[in-house]
């Protein structure tokens, strides 16, 4: 059985009764906790902290919250006609259910932590103070974690760190810089309360704190802080690059030397259906999250050159001699998914099914089913075939939210932006590229700052594909207006055609393809046409309901 947090859902409730019987008003509920008596002991504190952890189980638009952003980036699309799809098209407004949901969900988690810090401080004198500091530190981490995302998504947001009375509920927005100051200060303070590595899987550790510090500082161009936090974690030697890139995103990732923190699931307590979202119809999935042709073409050839420059790239065999992370991240035509060869060209009416050691030809649902192909590609990362078919609709595979690979790239980018490009920067990037299961060519010293900036940005797209970072990267680099507008493309998929582009697309220095010169580009599937308004879309709208109930709030420009 997994060694993980035993999550116990706790919802602090303020009990309000209306009666002219004063004695009745003084009675406490006998079957649930009361805000008047909470917290009485260590057990109740543990329950409350576990209740904060539960807020990591958030699945907007049918996808884990921290992954969901990438389906509104140039690496992902949501097929469901959902508010997430509207966000990807640049059509969000103050009533968008996807963007609104994050505001309410994150603030609920923040309020849980505020309740703990406001009402539970007396327990420090009544229990082991070190354990008290650790438990409350874990809750404060999640509060800081969610505030970091709130500030990145909405800009200025109300910074609330105590429970509020009704009279105090009209709270204005706090400047983003002050919110980030709070996040970094909180993380610095709680770091010493936590172990470097968890004895109980899923718990917040010093490693988790340092990883988040490096991420938040990087997102906010606090380069020195980002580099320092990353280096502190690297120097601890608590984590190491996993030789098995693909395995990190399966059940085996629980024991990966690279994984810092995973969200924990347990059958009978909490499961998820990521395989259903990602896998094909033949594999019993709905394939309603789709990668574009653009994401496929960003991966280099195995010689380290982009596909428009590499002599190893053959447009008629486009998946041969490619960065192995392409196959670890995506399901491409001709590759195996569970027991079938995945093929999406409209002429491929039959495919191979593996039955033990034998393989037989069977009808191919993916070729013509109305909801099967779309772009012609699927996501492979984050799902494990080990328990197929039981896990398709309900799996307890844990999901990685912090790992060393990201921290190394945070370090490299921060050092590049400081123009402190030394051997440690090359070592950080090459440690990722040279892992045993990847073995991409090393980056040789002697690059300029701009060359290294381009290399790091490209490496982030390859290494961190569909892990929830691309959406934020293209915004903080100010390139969303360049890479998002226009057609969201799938493969060439026309009867009688070969199914491939006639030529390689042109790849820019950070891995973005252009199809302007492709002779059969008009045969590519166009799933939708997107837009991005740089004067508005770098921030999300403040939910309309929040503006109506908290009149101290103001709306972001353009909404």
TrEMBL record:
This is RagB/SusD family nutrient uptake outer membrane protein. Residues 39-218 form the SusD-like N-terminal domain. Belongs to the SusD family. Its main location: membrane. Coiled coil: none annotated. The keyword Signal applies. It is found in: Cell outer membrane. It holds the Pfam family SusD-like_3. InterPro entries: SusD-like_N (IPR033985), SusD_RagB_dom (IPR012944), TPR-like_helical_dom_sf (IPR011990). Gene3D superfamilies: 1.25.40.390. Keywords: Cell outer membrane, Membrane, Signal. Residues 285-559 form the RagB/SusD domain.
């Amino acid at each position: 059985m997994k060694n993980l947090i035993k999550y116990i859902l706790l919802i602090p409730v303020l009990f309000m009764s209306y009666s002219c019987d004063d004695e009745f008003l003084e009675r406490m509920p006998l079957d649930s906790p009361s805000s008047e008596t909470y917290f009485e002991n260590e057990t109740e504190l543990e329950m409350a902290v576990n209740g904060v952890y539960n807020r990591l189980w958030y699945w907007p638009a049918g996808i884990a919250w921290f992954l969901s952003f990438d389906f509104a980036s140039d690496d992902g699309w949501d097929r469901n006609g959902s508010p997430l799809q509207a966000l990807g098209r640049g059509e969000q407004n103050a009533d968008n259910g996807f963007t609104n949901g994050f505001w309410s969900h994150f603030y609920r988690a923040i309020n849980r932590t505020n309740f703990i810090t406001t009402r539970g401080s007396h327990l420090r004198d009544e229990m082991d103070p070190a354990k008290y500091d650790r438990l409350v530190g874990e809750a404060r981490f999640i509060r800081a974690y969610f505030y970091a995302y709130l500030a990145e998504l909405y800009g200025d947001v109300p910074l609330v760190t105590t429970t509020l009375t009704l009279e105090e509920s009209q709270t204005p927005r706090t400047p983003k810089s002050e919110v980030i100051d709070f996040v970094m200060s909180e993380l610095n303070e709680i770091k010493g309360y936590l172990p470097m590595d968890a004895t109980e899987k899923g718990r917040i550790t010093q490693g988790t704190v340092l990883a988040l510090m490096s991420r938040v500082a990087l997102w906010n161009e606090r380069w020195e802080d980002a580099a320092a936090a990353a280096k502190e974690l690297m120097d601890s030697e608590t984590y190491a690059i996993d030789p098995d890139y693909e395995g990190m995103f399966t059940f085996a990732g629980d024991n990966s030397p690279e994984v810092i923190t995973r969200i924990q699931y347990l059958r009978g307590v909490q499961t998820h259906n990521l395989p259903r979202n990602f896998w094909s119809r033949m594999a019993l999935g709905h394939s309603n999250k789709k990668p574009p042709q653009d994401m496929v073409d960003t991966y280099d050839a195995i010689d380290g050159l982009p596909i428009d420059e590499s002599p190893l790239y053959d447009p008629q065999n486009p998946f041969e001699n490619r960065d192995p992370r392409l196959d670890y991240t995506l399901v491409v035509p001709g590759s195996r998914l569970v027991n079938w060869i995945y093929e999406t060209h409209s002429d491929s009416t039959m495919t191979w099914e593996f039955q033990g050691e034998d393989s037989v030809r069977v009808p191919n649902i993916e070729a013509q089913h109305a909801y099967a192909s779309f772009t012609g590609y699927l996501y492979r990362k984050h799902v494990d075939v080990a328990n197929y078919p039981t896990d398709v609709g309900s799996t307890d595979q844990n999901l990685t939210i912090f790992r060393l690979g990201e921290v190394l790239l945070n370090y490299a980018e921060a050092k590049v932006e400081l123009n402190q490009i030394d051997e440690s920067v090359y070592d950080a990037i090459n440690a990722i590229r040279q892992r045993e299961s990847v073995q991409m060519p090393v980056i040789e010293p002697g690059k300029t700052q701009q060359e290294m900036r381009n290399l790091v940005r490209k490496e982030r797209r390859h290494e961190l594909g569909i892990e929830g970072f691309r959406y934020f990267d293209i915004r903080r680099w100010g390139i969303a207006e360049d890479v998002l507008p226009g057609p969201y493309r799938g493969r060439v998929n026309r009867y009688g055609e070969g199914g491939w582009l006639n030529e390689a697309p042109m790849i820019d220095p950070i891995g973005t393809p252009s199809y302007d010169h492709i002779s059969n580009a008009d045969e590519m599937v166009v799933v939708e046409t997107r837009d991005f308004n740089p004067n508005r879309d770098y921030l999300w709208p403040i939910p309309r309901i929040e503006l109506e109930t908290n009149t101290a709030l103001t709306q972001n420009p353009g909404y």
